[in-house]
Amino acid sequence: MGRTQVPGTQVKDSTINTVDLVDKAVTLQKMADVASGSVFYRKTSGIGSPEVQDINTLRNDLHAELLLTAKQTAQITNSSNTTPTDITGLYFDLVSGRRYVFKFFVTFKSAATKTSVGFVFSSPAMTAANWKVSIMQGNAGTDQTFENSTTSLTTVLVSTSVAAANTDYMAIIEGFCEPSANGGLQLRCRSEVNGSQITIKNSGVGYLIDAG
User: Residue 172: which domain range?
Assistant: First the structure.
């Protein structure tokens, strides 16, 4: 015989039989809370209750490449040649032991022709990393692009000048890495010359490929 519930009351125990529930009567609000980014599937062998997994576990189980994108969310200025500033929004979470390819596109301008921009990352410890910058610094039709590379994400790569002050130029930052700890990959910028301002316009984008 099924359970009879008094209207307006709640059942306080966990002894409700399946036959006591009408199909589709249990809503998501009645389930236990889960963290953001959670997915439901069972990893434990055999039949049993559903289990909550995070997205990185799902990706590992599927052995899948994953393309993530990032979008700059605020204009950034910097006038220091020693202290970089985070470029808000150009950030990715990394998982230890996985291998990644990344690329960012930003628009910058400088207050003076003798001042350009430098880029660097904050990141977790790395087993391996290699990255480069391509920064416009000349007029079209000339040797207009400064390029440099390094194997350290915390080494600043700095261009040396721009052709015209207060003019938009493009910079491309790209590379690959394999972290030895979990953490965030944050693109940062600073001025080449202390006291001379550079601006990163709020138009930057980037992507990250998780190669496994």
Answer: 66-210
Identify the residue whose tokens are 């880029």: 119
My answer on whether 24 and 120 are in the same domain is: no
Name the phi and psi angles at 28, rounded to 5: -60, -30
- Residue 117: closest CA among 96, 153, 148: 148
Domain for residue 180, yes or no? yes
Do 97 and 186 share a domain, yes or no? Answer: yes
> Is residue 37 in some structural domain?
yes
Tell me the whole-structure pTM to 2 decimals: 0.72
Domain count, the chain: 2
Residue range 132-180, pLDDT digits in tens: 999 998 776 666 899 999 999 999 999 988 989 999 999 999 999 999 9
Largest pairwise CA distance in the chain: 88
Please classify residue 37 by burial: count the beta carbons closer than 10 Å to its beta carbon, then call 0-12 exposed, 13-18 middle and 19+ buried: exposed
H-assigned helices in the chain:
55-62
In this structure, the answer to whether residues 57 and 95 fall within a common structural domain is no
Phi-psi region of 196 (alpha: psi -120 to 50; beta: other; left: phi over 0): beta
**Of the candidates 92, 106, 88, the residue with the CA atom closest to the CA atom of residue 177:** 92
Contacts of 161 (CB under 8 A, 6+ apart): 113, 114, 115, 116, 137
Assigned domain for 8 exists: no
68's tokens: 């993530």
